[in-house]
Amino acid sequence: MTSLKNGTTAARTEKRKKVAVIGLGYVGLPLAVRATERGYLVTGYDQDKQKIDHINKKVSPIEDRRLSEDLRQFPFQATADAKKALSDADIILICVPTPVDEMYHPDLGPVEAASRVTASHAKKGALVILESTVNPGVSEEIVRPIFEEAGFTVGKDIFISHCPERINPGDEKWTVKNIPRVVGSFDKTGLALSVAFYESIVDGEIRPMKSIREAEAVKIVENSFRDINIAFVNELARSFDVLDIDTKDVILGAATKPFSFMPHFPSCGVGGHCIPVDPYYLIERAKKSGFDHRFLKIAREINNSMPDYTVELLQDALNVVKLPLNGTKVVVLGLAYKANIDDIRESPSLRIIDRLRKHGAKVEVFDPHLPASSNKKTLEAALKGASGAILATDHREFIQGLTEELLKHSGLLVLIDGKNCLDKKIMKRSGVIYKGIGR
Hints:
The protein folds into 2 domains: 8-210, NAD(P)-binding Rossmann-like Domain (Rossmann fold); 299-436, 3-Layer(aba) Sandwich (Rossmann fold), CATH 3.40.50.720. It has 17 helices and 13 strands. It has helices at residues 8-14, 28-37, 49-56, 65-73, 82-86, 109-121, 138-149, 188-201, 212-242, 247-254, 278-288, 294-320, 348-358, 379-383, 396-401, 404-410, 424-429, and strands spanning 18-22, 41-45, 77-79, 91-94, 126-130, 158-162, 181-185, 206-208, 329-333, 362-366, 388-391, 414-417, 433-436. An 8-stranded mixed β-sheet has the order 3-2-1-4-5-6-7-8, with helices on both faces. Strands 10-9-11-12-13 form a 5-stranded parallel β-sheet. α8 (188-201) links the parallel β7 and β8. α9 packs across α11.
């Protein structure tokens, strides 16, 4: 099938094709809206009836200005009826979570369940694309056998591909519309169909991979790369703290080198559904084949330790003013894992709050993007009466609102900047004991 990079020709050719999206979360919902925008007949399938109700009323269940606008302009039908969504779909996108359990073991249950539902209702000739992030081998070892057990012959009457999701919540520049994608499949026909589909909805490069296993490996490598580099600077931060060196200034200095350096910055922890999760999928799968990913495991240990380290910084700073953490009122500013969104998946804030409570602190929480989960309505109210504060999310409301004047009149004694996003000079002029991560 001939298609142009901007999707115009492919959209005209395939615009009446039916697309089903399984899982209407941070990955599936933007995809469903985008496919609708490009002329496909889209049905979304999800088990969350409240989410379905919102979507059918053209209300986005996700805080995202652009997505909200697009959903109003390009609505689609959402349903909890799998047969209705899947039975006549030409293209089925599986966009379900791939979490880890409390022991960091991968949980492929959602992928297995979605594959079984799809195999039960998909028509012959359908293209099934797994977007969920998985370790190399999942499509071959788990997904394909499910369809074969249902009577399908892969590459003949069902086509299975993998296009690892790429989504950056809150990013105004890089969206589902223009982020380049990679695609792998079990056969040439499935690969060609998949490339044509993504070229019709994405205004960016679509790179075909030589195998479906290669495509699975791409996303794991992307996020493991980030995890390792973040772990490196987090370790530097702890080292430079005892050496009285501002880690942020050092990284900005190193970033003046125009080649062979990519700046990453330390923080109170790594959040989101990708970086703190994906490396475990590779670690566990490689272990089954007899390989030990020591480097990845160390990176995970370092990054998982940062919420505890942040609480230690607060405890040490409170000791300076002769206050114990036990019984002291502490406010955590921010629940979301990143700035200006309402996503709390794997957020370090949750671990920080847990550790504070285990130490006996009187914890209060304020996040302007998650009012239902906050016990204070404003920044001023959150700071009132608190002796310590941990800024765990760099929301614009905090960066703009934590002024010298506000801090002087808040009564706050200690402020731990878990994102290194505040002006250190202004914070110190306010009279509070200010401490960043490695600065």
